[in-house]
Design goal:
Number of domains of chain A: 1
Shape of chain A: elongated
Strand content of chain A: under 5%
Largest sheet of chain B: none
CATH superfamily of the largest domain in chain B: NADH-ubiquinone/plastoquinone oxidoreductase chain 6, subunit NuoJ
Helix content of chain A: over 70%
Oligomer: heterodimer
CATH class of chain A: Mainly Alpha
Number of helices of chain B: 7
Number of domains of chain B: 2
Distance between the termini of chain A: 67 Å
CATH topology of the largest domain in chain B: Four Helix Bundle (Hemerythrin (Met), subunit A)
Radius of gyration of chain B: 20 Å
Structural class of chain B: mainly alpha
CATH topology of chain A: Helix Hairpins
Number of strands of chain A: 0
Strand content of chain B: under 5%
CATH architecture of chain A: Orthogonal Bundle
Largest interface: A-B, 68 and 81 residues
Order of helices and strands of chain A: HHH
Radius of gyration of chain A: 18 Å
CATH architecture of the largest domain in chain B: Up-down Bundle
Number of strands of chain B: 0
Distance between the termini of chain B: 43 Å
Number of helices of chain A: 3
Chain lengths: ~100, ~150
């Protein structure tokens, strides 16, 4: 049996599909956690294409950039979850529809 | 991809967090296949180990009941509609117009491509200043999270 070679296009397709699933998750779910986790999924999809292009070009800059993105994602998750905790204390819910008001 | 689809459809945030861990694990495997051993390890350590523990911890901390979660269930109609619209507008053109016209090939790689040593040399030579800024951003994020999560200032 001859194995079909994996080309960069396969990785890029998977990356695009994952990114689309992430956008759909952000748009359709009302739970704050689901939105945050879909954001993480989108960041990971972009990381996958960075790594793919790093291998295509034989350049390590993509790897460095992915490491930076991962660190920023960690910071973002940290701040986002702190906001969720503060909002939950205020409103006793994690439903995004309840977070409408900007004052009071 | 299957894990990702499962993730956005689960009612319970815990089970979707677990499927997201599955996505991260699969992506770490793909990074390893793409000669990115260091990034693969970082993916497991930081995402599956750090961020997801934080998310699950906060979900459990808030102690949600099943009745609270029911109104936030994913409506299959909206999920399918969103996926279809996005597929038509973003994914479709990329998959069927851009990618088939490009035949990228893998570059010839040196044996140390993607190892810790090579990536480290790159970071501390060309990207030293962004690296330092990154530490500042992380510090700011930690302090900001602490201030916001505090009950009273």
């Amino acid at each position: 049996m001859e194995l079909y070679p994996i080309t960069p296009n396969h990785y890029l397709t998977l990356s695009a599909v994952l990114f689309t699933i992430g956008i759909a998750g952000v748009l359709t779910r009302k739970n704050v956690f689901m939105t945050l986790m879909s954001l993480e999924l989108m960041l990971n999809a972009v990381n996958l294409s960075f790594i793919t292009f790093a291998k295509v070009n034989g350049d390590l800059t993509g790897h460095v950039f992915v490491l930076f993105v991962v660190s920023i994602a960690a910071a973002e998750a940290c701040v986002g979850l702190a906001i969720v905790i503060a909002l939950f204390r205020l409103k006793e819910t994690v439903n995004l529809d309840m977070f409408k008001s900007l004052k009071n | 991809m299957i894990f990702g689809l499962l993730m956005i459809t689960r009612v319970n945030p815990i089970s979707s967090a677990m499927t997201l861990v599955g996505v991260f694990g699969a992506l770490a495997g793909l990074y390893a296949m793409l000669n990115a051993s260091f990034v693969s390890i970082i993916q497991i350590l930081v995402y599956a180990g750090g961020i997801m523990v934080l998310v699950i911890f906060v979900i459990m901390l808030l102690n949600l009941h099943k009745d609270d979660l029911q109104p936030m269930k994913a409506q299959p109609f909206w999920v399918i509609l969103a996926l279809a619209v996005l597929f038509g507008t973003i994914l479709g053109p990329i998959l069927f117009c851009v990618l088939p016209n490009k035949d990228w090939a893998w570059a010839l790689l040196t044996p140390d491509f993607g190892t810790l040593m090579a990536v480290g040399e790159k970071i501390f030579s060309d990207f030293l200043f962004p690296f330092e800024i990154l530490s500042l951003i992380l510090l700011t994020a930690v302090i900001g999270a602490l201030v916001m999560a505090k009950r009273k200032l």
